[in-house]
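All the exercises in this workshop are built on plain-text protein records. Sequence and backbone structure share a record, each on its own labelled line. The structure tokens are whole numbers drawn from a learned vocabulary of backbone shapes. The record below serves as our worked example for the rest of this section.
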Amino acid sequence: MYSHKLAKTIVLADPKDVESYLQPLNLSQSDLGRILERGLSGRYSTTQNHPKTSRGQYFYGEGVSAAREILAPKGYKRLSLRNVELTVSDKVALYLCRGCDQTGLIHGYPESRMKKGDFTCELMGLIHNNTPGQGELILDDNQLKLDLALPEGDVIPLLPNKIGLDLWFLLYDFYELDGDERVGIRAELSRPISYNSKNVVNDFSTRLILDVHNPDPIVQNGDVPQFTPDIDLDILKTG
């Protein structure tokens, strides 16, 4: 067993700083905003007749599809590993994930909204840690690579993942705008580092708070079609 500390989370919120950080990843806030907008369009395509879980499924499906299409000109492509859906370049892997209500807040402590399977946590190289930012991190032999040299200081490097790429979560969450079931969205691009005993991703080494401009959605308020007023036309018969 080894006991070490992780570096303090880096949080960037100024749009210029975020944009500068994104450039080496061959990404932009505009790219990420368009991906989330597509997800919202999928969410708003549902009606009250859809199952309750449909909104989340439609958002996720459209969001993943949008990431692969919008980022394709930049060399990104799809990668599916046992239902873990990624969008990857030769250096970076993006994973669309809904977060908790702390997502997108500068002083927040975001977590994934849903737990991740053992395969996902192992694939992503996440460390088991129930109390991120508090006390020391305990690593067992299985969490240390044989070729990973521990530094003499208090901080250990991020453990490599099995994807072999720099992994980032496009983390998002919704908040209510009004009584018409409209929602806003908060988001961040964050590099995951650990999960807790419930398999919830609970810590990130770097958090880029995104300046997301939400479009005005077209909301389906019910299942009854809406029609314009009737128009009377005079049809003249000829011949």
